[in-house]
Amino acid sequence: MSQRKAGLTLGKFAPLHRGHQFMIETAIQEMDEVVVVIYDCPETTDIPLNVRANWIRVLYPQVQVVEAWDGPLEIGDTPEIKRMHEEYMLKKLEGKKITHFYSSEFYGDHMSVALGAENRQIDPQRQRVPVSGTQVRNAPYENRHYLSPIVYKDMITKVVFLGAPSTGKTTLSSYLANHNNTVWMPEYGREYWEKHQVERRLSLGQLEEIAEGHLEREDNLVQNARDVLFVDTNAITTYMFSHYYHGSATLRLSQMAVDAASRYDLVFVCDTDIPYADTWDRSGDVQRLVFQKQIIADLKMWKIPYFLLNGTLEERAERVDKILKQFREYHKIGDLLTQDNGGE
Known about the structure:
The protein is α/β, with parallel strands linked by helices. Helices cover about 45% and strands about 15% of the residues. The chain starts with 5 loop residues before the first strand and ends in a 5-residue tail after the last helix.
């Protein structure tokens, strides 16, 4: 009876790129089972270990992913550092027999010896996939074709603008996208409403369709974003309109509104201090003030931190850019809110 082949690879995957994927996919093709050990590396990337591990779990559900939260942080080609990593890996595997060690790095030599495994080097010269983690970290947008969509979207800061109708969300989103050389997501609800409204109303199911369509377009658009995606409105607004017109919302729309609490990195509310544009599709300035109160109340109910924007277009944009410069992905924004007089 032939020996069961078990492959192992390890790394930071900061971020996971096509080179890593080629190595993992090669191991999957050649082995009966594959183990991927992923290290915590706060000195290299702000993207948390569990987020990076989840990329591999989603893309390769047949792989066993081991999160090495307590792994050595030292890297290098010294005997001491090599021994440290070897001892850690042997302990982490808890006696599991590894027959093949996969890598494209120098440590493949010593780690395979320590494991008693075959040293399986995959594209060490980076000819098949000419990219490195450092290259991607330094220029994510330029190297995004080396990244899976699920990876790239987690590297983009998602900024959403909320507010009642005629508070400048669309103008500000477009302006900031142009200023930051990126893309922005228009409000899908407006487009849908113009096509499907009957006597200025939509059904409960149609409001759910708006939220679904908006999310789908947003997910597609984020792949073309450079560092940041600006979004005009989200499911919280659609949920509010559903309750305003029908006194309720579908379960799916309600859930999308709840999910919006964690979907966006920064939430800005555009204030009502600009003149009201009284177009045929709007309900009037008095109703604008009511909608604004409801949106802010919903944000507070779901404990979603936000920044209030007022002033001219240029003043609003300047404030957003200032906050973006201070913001760090996957870090709490409490300090930013404390520093910003507009935080609620």
